[in-house]
Amino acid sequence: MVIASSDMNMRAKTKLIIGILCLMGLAFGRGINPTAPDTETVSAPEYMGAMTMASSVREIKKTPITVVPRKTDGNKDTKSRLEVHYIDVGQGDSSLIICDNEAMLVDAGDESKGTAIQLYLKKHNIERLKYVVATHPDADHIGGLDVIVYKFDCGQILIPNCSNDTPSFDRLIYSVKAKGYSPHIVDVGEKYSLGSAVIEILSPSSEFIFSDTNDSSIIFRLDHGSNSFLFTGDATIPPQQALIFDPDLDADTDVIKVPHHGAATAYIKGFYDEVSPEYAVISCGRKNPYGHPRQEVLDDLKNRGTKLYRTDEQGTVIATSDGKKITFNTSPSSTWKPGEEENSDKTVRKSDSAVTRVFQHNLSDPPEPSVTYVYNKNTGKFHYPGCSSVTDMSPKNRADMYCSREELIKTYPDAKPCKRCNP
Ligand SMILES: [Zn+2]
Ligand SMILES: [Zn+2]
């Protein structure tokens, strides 16, 4: 249940700021900081599809207005207890939040993790999820959610105004429809209750559609007594700038889940100045091919004395709040070791100049993962991105891959290497 909605002038202003920043991001940011989605990119017509879905669910969400203070009453009830489980799902995200016998799940890792999350919830005696949040439609966040939607009683399914042309998104939508649920598109300023804790949506606005699925990530602050936790999905620079510049959006928190698994393209120092986190959690896979987390993110957190927890080193990290104090199930990480990008030697050795250029660029300007292969959904062949066949490929058939050769073949078991570029 949405329990509050903020003053309309504030919301209109917030939307204006986000809109301007989005446009700035589109006009300038992309050139400087190419964003690499976790999976495939989405073309304009697919966003039109998202808009249709958005308008069809929008009428269900209008809400009564109540004012909820920033500090919740979690500290009045000495028995109130909040647990935030940052579940180890390898490369991806999944967080379970439990407060006073109510539970919510934020993402469920990739499609191989749905059953593991199901068992994790069962182990914690959870049968009902008051909220299921799909932060954004990338496979490493929503891939396992269809299992959860099928197996659990889900109160409200919260989504951003964004869709994706991927099998994992299709499966999620199918499961939601099959169970007769109507997803709710969130909007900045909305508040939700979970036990004595309160969740405030900080991004995105339901009225904007970002060009990048990561930027459509639902960002929310969870308040429990005087403690607060920030969830950021894979949001990169534009939504973070909105939080920095909009005085009505309060991102100052005790615990931040670091945006986009600690990627460099999702890092701006100003955001951490704004959040001033005492604790940070990074969810990423051991030896993930993207090289998450990046050195500059770790350096910033280290320099400001933030205690860091990492699922790749420590497994599932659990934070517990009594409304006054936050404790963790493990000691902070002390390695400050960045991820290493998957060894690209094999690819660089190929004489394909476009491929070589991509990796040389990466060495001087450590970046997000680049496209490693391009798969043609029609012919079933895969290519190096620089192959001449790729230039002629219809966008409809083209799937840009950001993974190793083995992972590509796991995704498309019938994939055959192109005879021209011989990947
Ligand atoms: Zn992700
Ligand atoms: Zn993503």
Overview of the molecule:
- Strand 12, helix 8 and strand 13 form a beta-alpha-beta unit.
- The protein has two domains: 2-328, 4-Layer Sandwich (Metallo-beta-lactamase, Chain A), CATH 3.60.15.10; 345-417, no CATH class.
- 53% of the residues are buried.
- It is α/β, with parallel strands linked by helices and 423 residues long.
- The protein contains 14 helices and 20 strands.
- It is globular, with a radius of gyration of 21 Å.
- Residues 37-38, 136, 138, 213-214, 234 line the site of one zinc ion.
- The site of one zinc ion has 7 residues, from helix 4.
Question: What are the key terms here?
Answer:
single chain, 423 residues, alpha/beta, Metallo-beta-lactamase, Chain A, eight-stranded mixed sheet, 31% helix, globular, binds zinc ion
Low-confidence stretches: 4-8, 25-69, 344-369
**DSSP summary: helix tally:** 14
**What coarse outline follows from CA principal-axis ratios?**
globular
Q: Give the fraction of residues assigned to helices.
A: 25-40%
* Total domain count: 2
Any guess at the CATH architecture of the largest domain?
A: 4-Layer Sandwich
CATH class of the largest domain: Alpha Beta
Oligomer: single chain
| Largest sheet descriptor | 8 strands, mixed
Quantity of strands, as a count: 20
Bound ligands? zinc ion
